[in-house]
Design a protein that fits this description.
CATH topology of one domain: Rossmann fold
CATH superfamily of one domain: NAD(P)-binding Rossmann-like Domain
Strand content: 15-25%
Strand order of the largest sheet: 3-2-1-4-5-6-10
Radius of gyration: 20 Å
Order of helices and strands: EHEEHEHHHEHEEHEEHEEHEHHHH
Largest sheet: 7 strands, parallel
Distance between the termini: 47 Å
């Protein structure tokens, strides 16, 4: 049994679905079901006895203690986090609560649980913390990609809160001996991605004939990682990662945002042409967000060298799968685009 936090969100849900598709080991899935958590992501697991869903908050210590005592998981995989930079700019407080206080609460509960274990159960217990490349700050055009030893230089409330959580995880290992691992991943994309992030937002807006908002000059560069590749990397870390170590997980796909938008337009032109013309006609440049990091790039050689992991998808194969999924699941997109979501898009993009 493993305990997954945030397993109804984008990456967490993909991890739970992939885990149960490849392994028989049950999952206890704890999620607060905030705006980005969605039980519909897990609809295919209804009636599957291997999946135990718990609606709850990672800041609730009593709940965490009860779940650990009841289910005795051999590992905790910690996805639960507020994760959108734009939301952190508008309201940083929730990021501090969930990402910092929540991680602290989990670590303390995990430490108490682990210290009560004996023998093989104690030796094999793991706490895996899922983090982001944004903690490393911004790169110049010719700077080398982020390695695991890169100095932390977070530039947004979101990345600062994740950096704080990373430091907590590291400290609980070095101070208390808790067997932790951490992964810092690049931008994920794929099925079930909440449509306020770039790729699903562009797909949804294009199909609706709405403007395709591009921040600034669109030349911000990100490394793109297909979500199921991220899931396989975490499984590899759980299987063979060394306690106390950090593993950077990337897709080896550095792309400017404007190139991502144009690629999506070309794929939609091919797969669902619009009689009004190419979707690229809808591209609209909007004012850049405050403190927007210019470039991220992940050096994923350590995880390949030590654990034998490398992404299976290229960007071309992954982005085609992603567009095809959204075209086949437009009902899912419609269901998550609540009034609150529309109000947020209006506030963050149209107002610019």
């Amino acid at each position: 049994m493993i305990l997954v936090t945030g397993g109804a969100g984008f990456i967490g849900a993909n991890f739970v679905l992939d885990w149960l598709a490849t392994r028989d080991e049950p999952v206890v899935n704890l999620d607060a079901l905030t705006y980005a958590g969605n039980r519909e992501n897990l609809a295919s697991l209804e009636g599957d006895a291997r999946h135990v869903f718990v609606h709850g908050d990672i800041c609730d210590r009593a709940l965490i203690d009860r779940l650990l005592a009841e289910h005795q998981p051999r590992a905790i995989v910690h996805f639960a986090a507020e994760s959108h930079v734009d939301r952190s700019i508008h309201g940083p407080g929730e990021f501090m609560r969930t990402n910092v206080e929540g991680t602290f609460t989990l670590l303390e509960a995990a430490r108490a649980h682990w210290q009560g274990l004996e023998g093989e159960a104690k030796a094999t217990f793991r706490f895996h913390h899922v983090s982001t490349d944004e903690v490393y700050g911004s790169l110049g055009p010719l700077d080398p990609a982020f390695t695991e030893t890169k100095t932390y230089e977070p530039n947004s409330p979101y990345s600062a809160s994740k950096a704080a959580s990373d430091h907590l995880v590291r400290a609980w290992h070095h101070t208390y001996g808790l067997p932790v691992t951490t992964s810092n991943c690049s931008n994920n994309y794929g099925p079930y991605h909440f449509p306020e992030k770039l790729i699903p937002l562009i797909i949804a807006n294009a199909l609706a004939g709405k403007p395709l908002p591009v921040y600034g000059d669109g030349q911000q560069i990100r490394d793109w990682l297909y979500v199921t590749d991220h899931c396989s990397a975490i499984r590899a870390i759980l299987d063979a990662g060394t306690p106390g170590e950090v593993y950077n997980v990337g897709g080896w796909n550095e792309k400017p945002n404007i190139d991502i938008v144009k690629t999506l337009c070309a794929l939609l032109d091919e797969l669902k042409p619009d009689p009004a013309g190419s979707y690229s006609r809808l591209i609209t440049y909007v004012a850049d967000r405050p403190g927007h990091d210019r470039r991220y790039a992940i050096d994923a050689r350590k995880i390949e060298r030590e654990l034998g992991w490398r992404p299976a998808e290229t960007f071309d194969t992954g982005i085609r799968k992603t567009v095809a999924w959204y075209l086949a699941h437009q009902d899912w997109v419609a269901h998550v685009q609540s009034g609150a979501y529309r109000e947020w898009v209006e506030k963050n993009y149209t107002a610019r």
